[in-house]
Queue: 4 jobs
Job 1
Amino acid sequence: MLGSRRLHPLFPRRNTSRYCKIYFSQPYARDTARKHSATRCRTSEPLSRPAGLRKRLCPPHAQPSSFPMVRKIVRRYLILARGKFLDDAKTAHGVIAYGQDEISAIVDASLAGKTVRGVLPHLQCDAPICESVREGLQYHPTSLLIGVAPQGGALPQAWRSEILHAMDAKLEIVSGLHELISEDEEFAKAARRSGTEIWDVRVPPTVPLFSGAVYDVRVPTLLTVGSDCAVGKMTVALELARSAQKRGVNATFVPTGQTGVLIAGWGICIDRVVSDFAAGAAEQMVLEAAPESELLIVEGQGSIHHPAYGAVTLALMYGCAPDALVLVVDPTARTIANFEVPALGYPELVTAYEIALAPVKPARVVGIALKTLGLDARQARYEIERAREESQLPCDDVVRFGADALYDSIASEVRRTRPRTAAVPA
Amino acid sequence: MLGSRRLHPLFPRRNTSRYCKIYFSQPYARDTARKHSATRCRTSEPLSRPAGLRKRLCPPHAQPSSFPMVRKIVRRYLILARGKFLDDAKTAHGVIAYGQDEISAIVDASLAGKTVRGVLPHLQCDAPICESVREGLQYHPTSLLIGVAPQGGALPQAWRSEILHAMDAKLEIVSGLHELISEDEEFAKAARRSGTEIWDVRVPPTVPLFSGAVYDVRVPTLLTVGSDCAVGKMTVALELARSAQKRGVNATFVPTGQTGVLIAGWGICIDRVVSDFAAGAAEQMVLEAAPESELLIVEGQGSIHHPAYGAVTLALMYGCAPDALVLVVDPTARTIANFEVPALGYPELVTAYEIALAPVKPARVVGIALKTLGLDARQARYEIERAREESQLPCDDVVRFGADALYDSIASEVRRTRPRTAAVPA
């Protein structure tokens, strides 16, 4: 077994079962799952106001496989990343770097014979890279992780036979793709035949509408927001949570995307929730994580100026009602990727996020994390210095230089703020 | 037959079948519908850029009953609004005032024996109000419309037996509720038994991600935006479209909510679309309506400052990429309903909407429509004058005073604007 075992200060064992019981998405007979979800929602009702909103739940037909379940096993992942492991396997890299599960091997023929450490040393993992699923089976994986999250979300056709092969070998299939494996006729049939399970991580649980109950939470909440998708909002949240833990602060990483959910073992993929309920889903996660934490660090999604995903960003901002924001920026980008929307300067970007929240639940940007990947050390330092000068805020690249310095600079700024309240005349 | 028949200059017959073919949601065997939807999307692909985004479609499991279908019949509605017809039947009022279908009768025991004209003269409809569905059957309806859209979206328990009774009488059931009638076990069983059909209007069709293709549309697009939910954004859009038609402009009302879809016979309930695809849904509607129109007037949703639904508003703003906005305001509100978020003044509200769009696709607020319902004529005129002074924009109540004056004031301001484009260095 070459898989590495890591310590996870962010996810203390005592908490795991509690979160998992409520949020862990698992394959389960659809009707049974629905019945139980409905029962839980009717009996627990954690929200206190407003009464009129209590009973509306996100339509259950959108959540076929959410079910409370205690996570008992640690998985051993065979990660499918054909031809994409180096450049286009965000999910795989995240799970290797931060996840709780073991990594048995990677499937990417273009790198076969090497190890993860050999090609991506910063992931600190000695798992081998092999030609095919067939070859990977010798490392005794329990699960096949589809380790690629393309912008399109769809499963490349060429991968299907590899997945079917894994099913024949009775591996559990774990997927963060938009296209659900469990709803694919061929895969569903193969899974029934071989008796394997499918975990579509994106499928959200049943959640109520946003109620405002999050405003009564007393734990300070930090949200990472970004200049675009894929600039490192999740990584920054994880690294800051780790730094807080090192300082003895009981910080909890709150995952909102498929990689985050795979890493933390709980959470909701906010972009998959029906629009009307997206803010409610974010609120529920904060309500759930707050009681056992001293600091919540919420994984951001998209960017407020992204023409396709800006609404997901806003739902998360309103829903988790943060007290402070950390802005994550790719300083080399001139536009939003795939669109011609121009990248804003630091002051404009900071202002845009603060203005968006100001009328509802004010929060300030307290620091900026830069993604200087691709720049040399000198250029990186120059960009960080430039960001500091232009924004007058603490700035750093938490991957290149560690998150401790940035965390220390912003920690005292993350204090609970009040939502705006109208001066209603009596 | 007491139902009234109205002319609909907004929905010229020649257009109806085209829109209906693509967007009309209808009950249909789930698997067949999916197969056809998938085929349509693969073969038509109306989008030209960016290529990487083309293939990702909103997950089909969320759209069980969307299917292209030509609308051949005009319905005769029996409208179920038990005890709520006067004050809490937004959907019913909209369909009566603006819809293409006949109104056979209303079910509301608290008003039994009266007529719609007798209790709500402005709806200009002579349909009778009766005690129960049983009594309403004498007016030969074809369909039962669940004419209430509570904030919670859920179906009041007491209404269930009325719906079952209608099913036994072989009426089609048409519902705009979040809680799907077709997914309710008891209703689904009753529908199978009696052979009746169920149309859950909110169920969205399969749509692709936002692509930016909307930026190439040459038809000016006007979007109504609001200070809150339920301030009249749909009504203002309908009235402005009607005024434009009177001036010989081929204006098309683009519906984005359940009442709008019921009225126009096509459209997508944007709040029911999975977050990631909400902007894409709005874009698709504009692409669909543009070729046969000279002006698009898009029905707005929610409010950019609504803590629960603000993200739906932003998805619509980014997705339909409007050239101009008409702000719809309830001047008597001090907060967002059900929340303590303070209502903003006119200049702040105008600025907030313009700032939200500015970095992506600039659009100006060109006029303000006030909801002065509940004020007397003098107060209404005072509020309109105050809005005019504070905003320096054309202001009116289009329900109380008609939309012609407001339309004439803003028509020349609704011109095609370009999206912002980055000055990317060569």
Job 2
Amino acid sequence: MSSLVNRQIRLVRRPQGVPQPSHFERADAPVPDLAAGEILVRNHYLSVDPAQRGWANDEGNYSTPVPLNSPMRALAVGEVVDSRAEGFAAGDYLYGWFGWQDYCVATPAAVLRRVTEKAIPLTASLGVLGINGLTAHLAFHKLGRPRAGDIVLVSTAAGSVGSFVGQLARIAGCRAVGVTGSPEKVATAVARYGYAQAIDYRHEPDIEAAIARACPEGIDVFFDNTGGAIADAARGLMRLGGRIVQCGTAATAAWTPPPTGPRAERNVLTKRLTWSGFVIFDHLDDFAATAAKLAALIESGQLIYDEDIVEGLENAPDALTRLYTGENRGKSIISLV
Amino acid sequence: MSSLVNRQIRLVRRPQGVPQPSHFERADAPVPDLAAGEILVRNHYLSVDPAQRGWANDEGNYSTPVPLNSPMRALAVGEVVDSRAEGFAAGDYLYGWFGWQDYCVATPAAVLRRVTEKAIPLTASLGVLGINGLTAHLAFHKLGRPRAGDIVLVSTAAGSVGSFVGQLARIAGCRAVGVTGSPEKVATAVARYGYAQAIDYRHEPDIEAAIARACPEGIDVFFDNTGGAIADAARGLMRLGGRIVQCGTAATAAWTPPPTGPRAERNVLTKRLTWSGFVIFDHLDDFAATAAKLAALIESGQLIYDEDIVEGLENAPDALTRLYTGENRGKSIISLV
């Protein structure tokens, strides 16, 4: 047994809805000795992600719920301090499922990506080079299939994924139009995230009319993180052969039973749409190559990213709660170093 | 001016809903001399298609409505009797937009396919080698992307397209399950159209439960000609990575405003579905090669087709009306020879 003490944030009560600090507790644990095939990672930065709500609730759509009284499931970036796994050595930097804690004993299966970029801060691995940027790039290019000149509409344009889709669309020669939830986010989307125009859906009496004004020629790619009324409006404005990329459904709180909305069959048929669903963890094999493309865009100054970094493990639960009030400005990160 | 008399069925009143014989009139017209670039086709067989309802109404989604007092728009197969167009000669057989009439003066743009199969009756060009069979093959293979072992669900399984999709699915090594609207059609779907099992949706109190029983492992390809309640049920039973091919929306009579149904976003996302729309006239370049594949399947006895042939031009309107009562058994065709 190592003499190290591992500070953890554990899930101790199961939330209904948005997790609150009261659902978590700080606790210390020993760091066990490594078994063969294991690595010991010292976390430098922890990720705070909207998806953690689903992992904490017991209605996980993609994964089993986090067991009570265990460290909160989280992505993190850290340094290997000891290794009994082939191919991993002390000093390697890794991005993976290392949890809200100081140290993680992991197997290589928990590693999503090796961090090799020397010129880019390590925090970038949690956002633009992590699942947010990778989702934006892979979903936009693989499912959205953009062509230069396309009109690209993005819901949650100033969000963790949308902030990159706007920029990637601009880089691909498209005209990006964003939908977001405040005048401030509209301004940021246009000033920083590549959008030619953005719409504040909370202050539009008729969202379909607003999108139609912003996209008078229609929409070729709809990158949808919300579903709901924005999606209904966008679907009616798609051009022939348009692509809808379903990347999230943030507008709908509960799916049992599914809420109703306008039927989509006729639009899919007459517009020859392709509507497809994207889940980043289906695309692990593309992570290294896609992160390299994103890193090159960052280094050349074409792609920017914003971060909201809070110091201290103990602040992770509060940072998670704040995600759902929209208070964060950029990728939410907990610094341990 | 030729001395030939061209008997026509003209649209003289615009129907609301299903066209009735009273919306049409028989009339004679002269056959004009050919201008440069034109061909004169003598129709042998006329097609009677559900889509003619949309062409006769003034709500055409794909095309302008048929002008009143002109021959009813229709596909037909016939023989070139005179040609002033390069590449066409008397004796050629053609499938194209030749209308409900004896003769058509056409340009090459009206031709969908040259009929070259000698061993297959000419009528086949209107159904299995026409848009029905071509739709089944192209939509199933290009959008459905079947793999051996896949579970394929088809709505309107005994219909003009579904009767081929079941057979093509079986040929591709899939298990085809059909949904259709009578005990008689269930029997035909299983006996003749390649379905391992079929469901009579009119006599099922719970269509989702019935589909789930027939597809206990879920659905990989949903070939949908109806939309509506059958589609809602199928969507919830799709497997990861499933494909929905939207080929028709027969279950919904009117789309202005669109009726509501359960929202699809969550299924599309969590099941990573690909839901796409198919319109056959986008695929003209594939007609010749695909018809050759279908013809080979017919000649080898792997693909069968049923026809409901009525003699006499004057019977075309009644044959159209009967399509919507489900009385026809096989592709509805009017014989002029």
Job 3
Amino acid sequence: MDRLFLPTEGVDASLRGFARAHAGLVELHEDPTYLLARERHPDRRVGIVSGGGSGHEPMHAGFLGRGLLDAAVPGRVFASPHNRQVYEAGKAVAGPDGVLLVVKNYTGDRINFGIAAERLRADGVEVRRVLVDDDVATESEETGTGRRGTGATPVVEKLLGAAADSGLGLDELAHLGERVVAASRSLAVASRAQTRPADGGPAFELPDGELEYGVGIHGERAQRTVSYEGLEHLVPRMVSDVLDSLERAEATGDDVLLLTNGMGATTLLELYTVHDAAAGALEERGLRVAAQAVGTLVPGLDMAGFSLTVTRLRDDWLDLWRAPAVTPAFPAPTDIPAGTPTGSPAPVEATR
Amino acid sequence: MDRLFLPTEGVDASLRGFARAHAGLVELHEDPTYLLARERHPDRRVGIVSGGGSGHEPMHAGFLGRGLLDAAVPGRVFASPHNRQVYEAGKAVAGPDGVLLVVKNYTGDRINFGIAAERLRADGVEVRRVLVDDDVATESEETGTGRRGTGATPVVEKLLGAAADSGLGLDELAHLGERVVAASRSLAVASRAQTRPADGGPAFELPDGELEYGVGIHGERAQRTVSYEGLEHLVPRMVSDVLDSLERAEATGDDVLLLTNGMGATTLLELYTVHDAAAGALEERGLRVAAQAVGTLVPGLDMAGFSLTVTRLRDDWLDLWRAPAVTPAFPAPTDIPAGTPTGSPAPVEATR
């Protein structure tokens, strides 16, 4: 039994520690609980709000700051925030063009962000929602609720943040967000369940040598269990499933963004190994990895495993990805030399 | 049994993935294996080289780049690099004032970096070594080998990197490094052992509800096992042990740097909770947390647990900590508003 170092009463102490460690960038509001970025680009006309259950840090509060989110609304572990939190955060950051809500596709989040949107509209604030639903594992089996929102969320938030800084209006941002979501897919595997906060037991059991193929970020059981026979078999299969789903969505474009994300307990040593294999598999399919990030950005507590997210890039999305952001945790694009003009073609070395 | 996603043949694929993901900042050399920063400050007169066994990522390669390390030399998992790797890396980055080696206090690293230093000197390159030995858990019992080098390593490397950019010479840097080491202490606890790469088993067994108090970054067994009775008891005890050791070393100063470090499988949600408690415990002792960082910087593979590192700050060390660095993974100081002049007193808000 593995106890987490978490107080049973919730995540307040963690939020205080976060606000203390990054006091130059963020401020914590209590009752109701939400976090705000201290700065925003002067051209930004729309406040961007995201949030959801805790246990997926650094998402979302770690992405607060100039060039990214204006407000983040954390719930308790794996539980949606209350609509009052979202409403108050939206009021606090509404721009002249209103508020954009970035919502992962889970029932609780949809309901609470939806009520908050209605309340904001009742106050005269324009609101649009971007619903992130990228998880290939849930594409066919849960047709009622649709695909879950997982690893693509940081990508969607980054591109929207950069676009907001260029002065885009609310409808333009919402449209961009929908297009980025439609061009993004993720797939995750777990080799060990996360710890259940309540009693320290594993959230699910896995037979020895098996992986959950298509696991969710809360430990939702996968489509199937597969035998682990090495990354050289696993990763191309995952890449293939992700690309197939993008093909069904008619997302095209030879330049892709690849995010190799840790599920919580997976080391960087492993993630970079996975990343090299995934980038190679994409290149074998004739794609160019024009943008990339590696790290634990969307974990499910301390689950062992990883997810791959692919976004097929179009228009100015690569420039939006590379635009500067100042946040506690969003990874800087370091696959190209510093100072490379964002409008120019990427140097070839970044993808070799 | 939890298999790691690591190929049995070693860490080469991971290094390739790392070099690909951060190609704008680093380059990978093979045969022998080492990594170089692509840029260095024009005023830097000394090349700074660090390294050690793999499994502690992002240390050291993640700290390559302007303002920090010039070369990083990875061994296999938990094994010292070969002296030829260190020698070739040193040759590649030697400045007009020579090479500074930052070495964690382990026998294998001491030997291999020592041989490399002799070979460099035989080539006419000036070399000095800074030996990091901060782990309070090994202060008394292993008097033959001294304290292990653990969580203070990123702090030492950051301050030395910033100082090197100001044009300091080799002897001045070595002297600074020794003083920072003397003013830094760490202590780690584990709630679960890391996975043994060879067979997927746990590297050690822990009774239910117990912690290894004083564990090493390779899973070296602790001074003692303690019952976990909540962070409110554990963290002040750790802070007290760390401060007692600093007192024995006659390290003084009311401004401290606090690094709350994850051992691999510990979530940010937990680490920020720990950080809040640790900062509070330091403040209760009358100290000011003038600089801080939270994250998984020096893990031991996928061990669950955390370490606390305290450095008592003096002279211009706070400025050195806050000086800009451009690396794949070193955390930016975000506890103070961006643009705060580094020479001015820190705003009070950062430590409240």
Job 4
Amino acid sequence: MSKSLPSRSENYSEWYNELVKRADLAENSAVRGCMIIKPYGYSIWEKMQRALDDMFKETGHTNAYFPLFIPKSFLSKEASHVEGFAKECAVVTHYRLKNDPNGGGVIVDPDAKLEEELIVRPTSETVIWSTYKNWIQSYRDLPLLINQWANVVRWEMRTRLFLRTAEFLWQEGHTAHATKQEAIEETEQMLEVYADFAENFMAMPVVKGIKTANERFAGADETYCIEALMQDGKALQAGTSHFLGQNFAKAFDVKFLSKENQLDYVWGTSWGVSTRLMGALIMAHSDDQGLVLPPKLAPIQVVIVPIYKGEDQLNAIKEKVNPLVKSLRKQGVSVKFDVSENQSPGFKFAEYELKGVPIRLAIGNRDMENGTIELARRDTREKTSMAFEGIEQVVVDTLTDIQEKIYAKALAFRTENTHVVNTWDEFNAKLDAGGFVSAHWDGTSETEDKIKDLTKATIRCIPLDAKEEAGQCILTGNPSNKRVMFARAY
Amino acid sequence: MSKSLPSRSENYSEWYNELVKRADLAENSAVRGCMIIKPYGYSIWEKMQRALDDMFKETGHTNAYFPLFIPKSFLSKEASHVEGFAKECAVVTHYRLKNDPNGGGVIVDPDAKLEEELIVRPTSETVIWSTYKNWIQSYRDLPLLINQWANVVRWEMRTRLFLRTAEFLWQEGHTAHATKQEAIEETEQMLEVYADFAENFMAMPVVKGIKTANERFAGADETYCIEALMQDGKALQAGTSHFLGQNFAKAFDVKFLSKENQLDYVWGTSWGVSTRLMGALIMAHSDDQGLVLPPKLAPIQVVIVPIYKGEDQLNAIKEKVNPLVKSLRKQGVSVKFDVSENQSPGFKFAEYELKGVPIRLAIGNRDMENGTIELARRDTREKTSMAFEGIEQVVVDTLTDIQEKIYAKALAFRTENTHVVNTWDEFNAKLDAGGFVSAHWDGTSETEDKIKDLTKATIRCIPLDAKEEAGQCILTGNPSNKRVMFARAY
């Protein structure tokens, strides 16, 4: 607490790592690449979950739960899927430990080898589609609209808290449809849900788009995504929604009898967001003093700190503040009235600033005499002395205002850092400056790979709102009819 | 749907299995012992989670998340703990698959062997206490009151949906305290929370007690439990709360500096309930027609089925019923107005009966003429024609009444099936008849084992409210000063 954070301009990466630890969001565990999500971090994730879950249910989805383990043979059934995930799988091979007869402590029991190895799910398409085969016979069983909240494991070699971890928490929607059109609509609907959540809860503007073939989900016909811009000018993929075509239906032989009495393969989608969103949330808004949280996702929206000498002053403040606390809570505002005595007001101020509490109210003896209270906004760090009378409405309005302002700020940042370029030199200059770079590309994977090799930038997406526009590929000069969005990315 | 369930008296076990499948609660997956929790089953589990989570938070706990994987060496640090769990561990040994160069498809890559094997958590004491070591330095860091919602894996050889599965969902609370007394109070408080939940949400009476040394959690000094009685006369352990003493603090060297500036080991507790509660809920109340759900946990509390011929009649019914639906929902009642046209009212009646919807309202043409509506209670299967006017309040009151009545019914069943016995013959006769058998026991593990071998009955618990009473052990005749509760159990 005494040492201040590294600044963003000094060392952005170090700033992020330190902030995640000091704000009690997460830390590394003894297991390589697996994180511990600490209570404060988890309470933000819970708010995200609740909001997303409500949105999924409003769009007709229900939750279910499928096994953690996937038989190795299942993973192999969809060719590009296994290609995409085989390199980073945690594999269970045995089901028992025993005492080493040679005194080597507890060892894996060689007699307890599984007949078929099990993969800890990296994603659940295979185990879910193998189940859907039994659940779907006719068009009457469709659409099937299911979501799962779960942990998944991808054995990443380089990990970073929230952004890339071997185990992470996520939700994965898996839907089945009678027609291609309906499946595409579902894919697009869920992209809209994600964009809505990112913008209206996380206060984080996103570009909606389609991935190139190179960046597509292993087993999808089309991957839609939302891409956000972080304060260091790098892009972050915040959510994906996949149109799976009939790929998994074919791999697992899932057919249905249509209204017209025809047997056909089912159409599928899958879509997910993960604890990676925590990383995005942190990097989108926070500053050198600590977290900045949008009020809609802040576990504590308002903290009230009394400044007093002696029991009598504290009691007088309590008497005045308790009704305010009660009535704010009645309105659904989450308030902490911090009367703890071990820490000084200054210490508390720094602590709640670090933790991103949107509004801090402070009230001392002079305020009591004058009928005032001090309101500090976390986003702008402005402090204002105000009349205590009427403060409740000010707090409610300020929460709304903060939610809007931090979105507006992030949007202005993105606008400033989105560059339209037409030459290779400009392209490189803008990539080095940071941000999204909108440029023409000739549509080949070969060129995409070459650009990546040369610049470390990837095509984040082909924006859904990209206009038809004749141009020349930034690298090859070959014709292009649309700009795509490049960036260096997390 | 057309075939009726096996009856409980005919084949209780088959009745349970069929009910779980037909009511869309769960099914077996392709992975041995791992279940799929289907949407309807999961929606009941979600209601349980929400209620429990609220209770945990009201008692000062916060949620966090710890890794799925536990290094083998961690599990071994607490001697009795590893003894208890080593025999049923899923072990991860590799982190990659690859294509077999000899054409054998996808195989485990022998070059990707982990240096140390990882265990899929069977419970998280070890990984959590290894973390607490870093979180706890002084009495100021205590108590630490953390809960986790997670999946765990215990490689059971004989599995049954919900009751015993290789993977299950649960919550596990892990708390750390400065004093023994405080840790014991926490252990007891959480037992009370579980008992409160079982009785007031699940409508399932429970006996609160302490486990004998034989049945204690591996690593605990004392295990508290709640035990419920199922309709076939078998007991089911529904939740446990463990006083861990300083065992895990010692295993992971977790010390704190007390107010008196003394360095001492921390005191711990852990407590959990799992998806096993779903099995308990099903078996506690359901009948030969299907599920009977307590209104507080029913995903659909009221279903309204229209009985009509032609569009006009349906429209008239809709016009009358829609305001009722709206106003019930406003009161927080979850209502389904089933206007689907593919199925007959009779089919719908059977379906909602199978799924345990507490109240069914049916309204037809004659009701429309007479200003009536038919109300059917799932618990008693009584049908009553009532005035439509005022039905809203009747529904609300009936939901409360059903919640109370099914608890009362389960309590009466348990009272009838709890037997106090004093001789070995009586003991055996009552065990065969089914139910709890209250008897004297000499307090030795040896006698307990012998009784288990002879009768298959175990000591479910030493009830917390057991009175001091001189007596003789049912088997050995040795002196005893308290009765304990025996039963055959799930």
